[in-house]
Amino acid sequence: MYSTVHVMNTIFFYIGEKKPHHFHLSIARKICKEKNYTLKLIRRLPPPSLNPVLEIKQLYDLSKLPSADIYFIEGLQGTFYLARWLGIINKNTKTINIIAEPLIFLDDPPNAKWWLLKNIPIFKSMLKKALMENSLNIIVGNMYVETLKKEFGVDRYVGMPAGIADHLYISLKKIRPNLSSNRIVMLASLLSKDRIKWKGIDLARAIMDEVVKINPNLKLEVIGEYLPEIKEEYETEYFRFVGFKTNLVSSLKDYALALSLGYGDAFPVASLETMLAGIPTITSNKIGTSEVAKKASKDLVIDYFNLSDAIDKILNYFKLDLKKREELSLKVRKVATQYKESEIIDKYIKLENLQDFLEA
Question: What is the pTM of this model?
Answer without folding.
Answer: 0.90
